[in-house]
């Protein structure tokens, strides 16, 4: 992607499409810590749009095209239903603006590829909100994995769950579990082959074969009532391994010793840091971490898992386009 023109003023002028509960609790409250100014809020529900404009600042709109035309924006955040992410992100980029969307980047890998093509065509960056890449515990784990002393990555196991049976049976894999699927790529790199089984789309067990030769397993469940659980174990060379609980408590072992430790509240899971990355990337005229080019690959991996579970066979990633 071509370098973006750097923003001439220190505070980015942001607009947000979406004023539902998730964005109101997780996105809007974190904007105050950024070198950015919220100047426009848009939601189809006029009451929600005006409520968030009063609470967090900016004009309110019920038509995103009017917001794009009138608000003099530098960038846009999209936080609506997943089925609208691709259409809205393409419209924002075609209006000449960088865009950040909640995950998933689109309803399918094909639609994500369309977003990627729009990003390349317009020269505008598109970032997907895979927050786990920005959580300090996983950042420290990633830094350890790529260090020479950790040795070659050999085994990754991720166990994740929550208590929610959604009306859309694809929700567990493509909306909730996509976070840990992307995390697997972030930690160990690209996957070449998967073999998955599912129990009525309320639980998945997936074996991953990584391009670097490592192996892994991702297990997810929707039947853990009352809580979200997340346990990650990472093994490198002999005697080198890392454990991470709930995305916040990390312990690194080397040669029978604990050599690094990180523990923070569960709230430290990456929302503020991913938003900071979006703003920084625009200011610096570079591609953001968790760009649409990367999140397209995560969508391909999710579709490979889905296909493997449905057909009960190994699936090579080259089958998914």
UniProtKB/TrEMBL annotation:
Protein keywords: Oxidoreductase
Domain Gfo/Idh/MocA-like oxidoreductase N-terminal stretches: 13-129
Single annotated GO MF: nucleotide binding
Entry-linked InterPro entries: Gfo/Idh/MocA-like_OxRdtase_C, Gfo/Idh/MocA-like_OxRdtase_N, Gfo/Idh/MocA_oxidrdct_glycsds, NAD(P)-bd_dom_sf
Top-level lineage group: Bacteria
Cross-referenced Pfam families: GFO_IDH_MocA (PF01408), GFO_IDH_MocA_C (PF02894)
Domain Gfo/Idh/MocA-like oxidoreductase C-terminal: 173-316
Family statement: Belongs to the Gfo/Idh/MocA family.
Protein name: Oxidoreductase family, C-terminal alpha/beta domain
Record lineage: Bacteria, Bacillati, Actinomycetota, Actinomycetes, Jiangellales
């Amino acid at each position: 992607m071509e370098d973006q023109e750097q923003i001439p003023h220190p505070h980015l002028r942001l607009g947000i499409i979406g004023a539902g509960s998730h964005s109101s609790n997780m996105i809007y409250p974190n904007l105050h810590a950024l070198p950015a100014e919220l100047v426009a809020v848009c939601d189809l529900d006029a009451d929600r749009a005006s409520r968030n404009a009063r609470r967090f600042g900016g004009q309110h709109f019920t038509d995103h095209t009017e917001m794009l035309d009138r608000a003099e924006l530098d960038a846009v955040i999209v936080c609506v239903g997943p089925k609208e992410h691709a259409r809205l992100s393409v419209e924002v980029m075609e209006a000449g603006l960088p865009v950040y969307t909640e995950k998933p980047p689109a309803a399918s890998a094909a639609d994500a590829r369309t977003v990627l093509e729009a990003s390349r065509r317009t020269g505008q960056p598109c970032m997907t909100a895979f927050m786990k890449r920005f959580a300090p515990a996983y950042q420290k784990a990633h830094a350890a994995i790529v260090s020479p002393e950790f040795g070659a990555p050999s085994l990754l196991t991720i166990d994740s769950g929550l208590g929610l049976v959604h009306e859309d049976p694809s929700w567990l894999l493509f909306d909730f579990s996509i976070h840990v699927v992307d995390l697997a790529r972030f930690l160990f790199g690209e996957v070449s082959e998967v073999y998955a089984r599912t129990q009525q789309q309320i639980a998945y067990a997936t074996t991953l074969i990584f391009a670097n030769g490592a192996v892994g397993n991702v297990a997810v469940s929707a039947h853990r009532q009352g809580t979200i659980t997340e346990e990650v174990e990472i093994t490198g060379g002999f005697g080198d391994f890392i454990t991470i609980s709930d995305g916040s408590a990390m312990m690194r072992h080397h040669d029978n010793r604990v050599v690094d430790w990180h523990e923070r509240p569960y709230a430290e899971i990456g929302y503020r840091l991913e938003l900071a990355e979006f703003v920084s990337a625009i200011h610096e005229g570079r591609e953001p971490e968790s760009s649409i080019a990367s999140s397209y690959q995560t969508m391909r991996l999710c579709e490979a898992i889905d296909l493997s579970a449905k057909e009960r066979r190994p699936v090579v990633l080259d089958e998914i386009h």
